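ok so heres the complex, two chains, lmk if somethin looks off
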Amino acid sequence: MATFVDRYPEEASVVKATLVVSFLSLGIGALFGLVQALHRTGYLRFLDSVDYYTILTGHGVLLALVFTIFFLMGLFTWAVVQSLERPLPDIRLSWAWVGLTTTGATFAAVAILAGLIPSIDMSADVLYTFYAPLMAHPLFYVGLAMFIVGTWLAGADWFLAYREWRAENPDERIPLQTFMVLTTMLMWYLATLGVAVSTVFFLIPWSFGWVETVNPLLTRTLFWFFGHPVVYFWLMPAYLMWYTVLPKLAGGRLFSDPLARVVFVLFLLLSTPVGIHHQYLDPGIAEGFKFIAMTNTMFLLLPSLLTAFTVVASMEHGARQRGGEGYVSWLGSLPWRDPAFTGMALAGVMFAAGGFSGMINAGMNINYLIHNTLWVPGHFHLTVGTAVALTMMAGSYWLVPQLTGKRLYSRPIGLLQVVVWFVGMVLMSNAMHRGGLAGIPRRTAEPQYQNFDFSMALGTVGEIRAGIAIGGTLLFVSVVLFLVNILLSAFEEPIENPVDDSLPEPLSGASGSPVVLDNLRLWTAIAVVLVILAYTLPLAGIVGDAGLLGDVPGVPVWVSANAEATLDLLTEVIA
Amino acid sequence: MEIHAYEKFWLAAALLLIVGFIATVSYGAVGAGVEMIADDGGTVDPQALDEHPKFSDPGVYESGPNEYDVYVVAQQFAFRPGTAEPIRVPADSTVTFHVTSADVIHGFEVVGTNGNTMAIPGQVATFTVEVGGPKEYGLLCNEYCGSAHHAMEGSMEVVPKDEFNATGGA
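and the predicted structre for the whole thing:
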């Protein structure tokens, strides 16, 4: 029995297909990131600032949705197949969801990129959050809806595989990786209801002109109903690798299987009833509902703090298996020359920092100071931009050989790549956090204003710009190194065992944990009740204010001539 | 279920941290009186702002002894008042902002302070600040609102009491 591709060739093809889409969008999205970093810091501007928002939308959608979720779909397929030790029930279903998600993502990407070509009357410069009443071209919303339905089918594929396995193994515990996939997908089904309702019932009919108005607070609230849990949808594949792959790479075994299950159940329960914490500064939502969302958010720290313990404990165990000793010096015994290990370990370090800045965001009162400032992208470039993205890239160095039967082209280049990412992100996110404290806004092409300056507590705005520009450039270099390394690996000769793909048993196995942990129906029911408690009253209030369809007409973003005329008028008024 | 000793300790510390965070925010709201943006600003018809008693003529209104209401309309790509002319409020007074939007979602940020809210069409955001001595502040829109979003800025001037004339509008 050689590696994954030899045992499950058809499933390996599915995973490879999703990873190709994932890495392609990583490349384009990273290029857009570089353009942004240089533009908003003023180092290199070759675009109109008006077009900056096309690049920003592309960066957000391609990286946060396409890169991460296509990687997730590949990783979860691999995890289900290899942990249940059986092929998928019907490979046609698998190709159907690959096709649907890819078509949807392509539609959205075309709608966004058309914004760069003035002769095409199409644009989706509505940023990743697509807040109505700014209106994108209908193709954007249609593509988004297709993409989401595709992810639902992918989940169905994994649940069907689980059902077949369960029929043959009625009394066994769900294998840990499959347990992680299923709980994550249950959370996803619940969370995507918000964005699906918003897109299908409100935004698509509105963008086609079938209904004239929209309720901006309603669609915004439905977005964040999905928009915070999606954060955990990005994070769960990283957690899956930290729990099941990283301990092995470190030379040891997972510390505790039961606690890993508890962590994933907590994410299922608490991920969705927190979205209103993105709306602390929204009028139209009572303070009490915001307080409930904050309380849930704070308790959501628990599974991540537990994960920090388990991951570090598992690494320490691995280091001691390799001869490490002492309170701290065992760190030196870890396999730091292995890019897969080092990348994931550095991602974990950055996640700790991102967790702390997230606690600031979550605090209702201190949130005032940093809301919508550069602090926020500083925060999520540590979480999704490093904890998730770096773990996915590092994990690829271990995963891709199993899918191709070929060794990695260069481990030293891989090691350089993950270190460059780490350094680049330290520079950029540090600068962003500090800029945010000075009040520099996010999501703007030109954060230098005519009539005032930002006052820094420490350092200068010039230094912050330099940090963002240099950091962003290093991050782009890192992505190029990653893609070149993976691409060159495709030209290697197939070998018998391209990578050690065995996964050891945890130190504390599943048998010691209560059977109720595997009761997915129970956890889903509790999760639904929590969501109903957190959202019924605020949604009723919002709909009560302006009705389901609202009273605000759309403002299409592709009529940019209009915007420029307004700007000219404005400039005259001021002058 | 086996939970290791250090793991139990860690779990307890994590829960303590979480409860502590919630306690500090609760104290901030109840003890220190940090008010949140809530739903008490009410709603408004975004397509009929010109018929509204105050938003039709946005600006600074005296509402009591040493108390002022500031009505601000955000729209692509200016604040009224704020952009074409500064928002002027007297020093050492209590100022309540009422912010709404005439078109898309905007942000309203008084740079470097806690003065920060979303401006959502149809909704009125209100928040009250105790204004100190004379100073100039920058205002900016911190939510993407269209292709010239980066040009949407303004200013607020806290002026000495004797230089202040309630405009009643912009």
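quick notes: The first helix of chain A runs from residue 4 to 7. thats all i got rn
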